[in-house]
Structure formats: structure tokens, C-alpha cells
Amino acid sequence: MTISAETGTDFSLTDIVRNAGWDARLEPCGEEDIARMQASAATVAKALAADQPVYGLTQGFGPLVLFEAESELEQGDSLISHLGSGQGEPLPPEACRLVVWLRLNSMRKGYSAVSPEFWLRLARLWNDGFTPAIPRHGTVSASGDLQPLAHAALSHTGVGEAWVPGPGGRRTVRPAKEALAALGAEPFTWPVREALAFVNGTGVGLAVSIVNQQSAVALVRAAALLTGRISTLFGANPEHFRPGIGIARGQAGQLTAARWIREELPAGAERSPDRPLQEPYSLRCGPQVLGAVLDQLDFAGELLCREANGSTDNPVTFDGEVLHGGNFHAMPVGFASDQIGLAVQMAAYLAERQLGVLVSPVTNGGLPPMLTPRPGRGAGLAGVQISATSFVSRIRQLVYPASLTTLPTNGWNQDHVPMALNGANSVADALDLAWLTIGSLAIGVAQLTSMLGAGTDGQGPWAKLAELSPPLDADRPMAAEVRAARDLLRTTAETQLATDPDRAF
Question: Model pTM?
């Protein structure tokens, strides 16, 4: 059989996240999958029978490729053992589950010489909920995310840890050997070909970046929601968000962001005579800024989607040949992750600047500074704004492009590395702070609403927000309110995206 570029159905990014959910199930390989996988294995067997050198099977790993290897089982154990050097807290359980799904999706493509029987054993265990606890630090993402994927492979052998259901629906970490036993599963032994196909991939940085991209799009949706609410409360000039402005420019993201903002404006909205013809840029240019962020996130999402639907193994088989190359180099993922981080910073910065508009009498229509009803005796939102400013500063430190931090390693074998997972981990931390910035702005919106005596009309999240953050009759600690507002806005944004017919990405 000739292996072609046609390897079955490609999934959208939304499909990928849904297919890797806790309630999802991997379907067994179909006849076409099995035929591709068997043909790939036959190609490798033919090369071995002809005494052709094959990386990892007849030769050692990395710079040790110059040396011959003999035992497949010994090589498989050696591969995942020597790479078990990762450190740090495990990645979130959802990301760990997605990691294994991505590797299984890649392995069934028929480029990696993985046996259908071994694939099915892995898939059945995944369907049963077995999820490795993967340490977040220790890979350069060049020969794939070797260390974290090796830890995932080791957990299948009963070494290391795994995520298991815990109290209140939260997952906790337990020894992998116990997690396997609880499922009635025997520990694995990894043949070298399957071990190589599992660890030689970009799946960990890719999984974290996909989760980040989805979170970042929801962040933009939440920021647009708040922009519309602020504009409504102020009676800002609705011309800022009219379709014609976006049509004149022709940027897709801007048109979408403006639509999201308009959805929050009342029918027949008009500029209040108390407001300027042109609002400060953080309001007036909301569609332009959030639209630019959205475009970058969509570009990154398209790239990550292609990566998730491809094979990032080495070597690969194609048209009856064993090809040694570098598909495991995660530069595409690294660049996408870096861009997600830069975009997240911009959305968070816009939210922090809108909070600045709310708390300043110069821009809030003459309301008290910091939206305190007791200027002098009370400080209102002063602490909330200061923290939001700190969040944005820290985000900027975190999203420094990881692709600029490459270092040669592995005896100069890996002399160019992308550091994709390092970057994705930092972007995940930045997103945590960006959502807190959104929560901070939402608290400002709640206090602005009460100070203006505006109603909530039972629409959107605003009535619930008013309950979470009641009027500031006296100063109080507001950290918990910021977190609650963050959660409310995130849930609302995710629901809006899921029901938006124009965002079926």
C-alpha cells in the first residue's frame, strides 16, 4: 500500500478540544486506519530486512545515532527512562488528557509504524480515563517534547503519577501504579518504535497552546462584552462600533469585535450629551484593538489545528520509504504560542486602561475618583486598580517570546531548539493574570452601575455581577469579588462563543 497525504478526517480546533474531554471516547481504528498503520510497519520491516539504518531501531538516540542498537524492548525502555528528567508541578489534567489524545491521533495517521494492536491498548486505557500527570518543565521542544512525553509514557508502565477523580469532581494526583490497578490495567512495556512515536512529537506544547488559544479567544469575548457594557452605561457614541467603520477597513477581527460590542448596546443607542464626540482610545478603539488580537489568535489557531492533525514523528514512512527528518521540531507551535502571549497582553492592557477610564473623574463623567461614594474616608477601587496594573506588568514579563531564548544542547545534536513548552507554560500563567484583569474591570463595571443607578434588566451577566459586588458603602477586601467576577465573565464568554454561528472555528 502506498501511504499518501490523505489520512482520514481532519478535526477543527473546537472538535479537538471536545474530542479530548473527560466524557469523550476514541473510536477504534477503522479499516483505512489499520491499513495505513500496517503498511507503515511493513515499510520499516522492509528497511530492517535490507539492513538499512533506522533511527532508534538499529541506531542509538540523538548524538548516539552513530552507535548501533540491538534490542527493541531494551531500546524502548532506555528511551523513556533516560528522558524521565522532567520537573515541576504537573500540567492541568485537561491538558494532560489532550496530550495523549494528540499523540494517539498522530499515531493512527499511518506515518509512524505503530501497530494497531498497541494503539488500541493505549486508546482503551485513555477511554477508561487514565491520564498521566505530566511535569511541566524540562523540555526544549526540539526532538519533540521529549521529557514530558516520556513521563507520560512512564506512567503507563506504572512509574510516576496519574490524575484520578477526587472529591467534589476535582482531580488529584496518585501514583500511576495505583491508578492502573484501580482500572484493572497491567503496566505497559514499550517497544522502541511505539515509544519513539509517542515521545517524538510536539504534543505537550501543542496541547497547552491549544488550551491557551481557546482561553484567549474567550478573554477577547469577555473584553468585548465589558466594552459594550461600559459604553452603554456612559452613553458613549455608538458610532465607534458601527459596521461601516469595519467595512471601510476590511479587517475580519475588527468586524467581529465590533459586532460583539454592539450586541451589548441598547436598541437605538445614542450618544449622551454629557459624553464627548470621541471617547478615549481604550473605548473608541475597542473594535480595532480586540479585533487585531482576535485575528492573531485565529491565525495561531489555524496553525495549531494543522499541527494537531499532522504527524510530528521521526522517522516517518511515506510512499514505501523510511524518511529521517525533523517534524518533531516545535517551531510552528513555538511561534504560535509566542503570538498568543503577545495578543493576550494587549487584551489585558486594554481592560486595565478601561478600568482607568472608570476610576478617573476626568473620563468617568465627573464621578468620584476610584468610584468611592466616600472620597477621603474611602478609597473605593484604588486597590483593585493597582493590582490590575501589577497583573499587566507581570503579563508583559511572562510573554517575552520564548523563541528568543533558544540554547544549543544534546551534544550539539539539538543545536537549534524552539522552547515551545516553556513559552506555552508562561502564556498559561499570563492568561491567569489576564482573566484577573478582566475580573477587576468587571468589578469596576459593577460599581459604576450602582453609582449611576442603572438597571441590569435581567440581561446578560449584569444582575449576577451586581450580586457578587454590591455597592461600596464602605471599603472592604475585594480579592474574592474579583475572582468571582472573573469566573462569571469567563463562563458567559464561553457560552456566547459556543452559540455564535459565525465562530464555528
Answer: 0.95
The burial of 260, by beta-carbon neighbours within 10 Å (0-12 exposed, 13-18 middle, 19 or more buried), is given as buried
pLDDT digits (tens, 9 = 90+) for 372-381: 999 999 999 9
Q: What is the structure's pLDDT at 74?
A: 55
| All cell numbers assigned to 57 | 531501531
d(CA 275, CA 294): 28
Q: Is 165 exposed, middle or buried (0-12, 13-18, 19+ CB in 10 A)?
A: middle
As a whole number of Å, the CA-based R_g of the chain is 26
Q: Kindly write down the DSSP assignment for every residue of 405-445, as one continuous string.
A: G---BTTTTB-S---HHHHHHHHHHHHHHHHHHHHHHHHHH
Length of the chain equals 505
497 pLDDT more than 70:
yes
Tell me which long-range contacts 177-182 makes (C-beta under 8 A, separation of at least 24). Answer: 179/130, 179/155, 180/130, 180/156
User: Beta strands of 153-289 (E only): which ranges?
Assistant: 161-165, 171-175
> Which string of b and e fits 191-211 if b means at least 16 CB within 10 Å?
bbbbbbbbbbbbbbbbbbbbb
- Residues known to be catalytic: 55
Of all helices (H) and strands (E), which one includes residue 486?
A: helix 479-498
Q: Specify the DSSP class assigned to residue 5.
A: S
β-strand 135-137 against 321-323: which pairing, if any? unpaired
Residues 347 and 293 sit within 8 Å (Cβ to Cβ)? yes
Contacts of 44 (CB under 8 A, 6+ apart): 54, 57, 113, 193, 317, 322
Query: Please, are residues 116 and 30 in contact by the beta-carbon 8 Å criterion?
Result: no
Burial 334-356 (b: 16+ CB within 10 A, else e): bbbbbbbbbbbbbbbbbbbbbbb
CA distance 219 to 288: 16
- pLDDT recorded at residue 4: 38
Q: Are 431 and 490 contacting, i.e. CB atoms less than 8 angstroms apart?
A: no
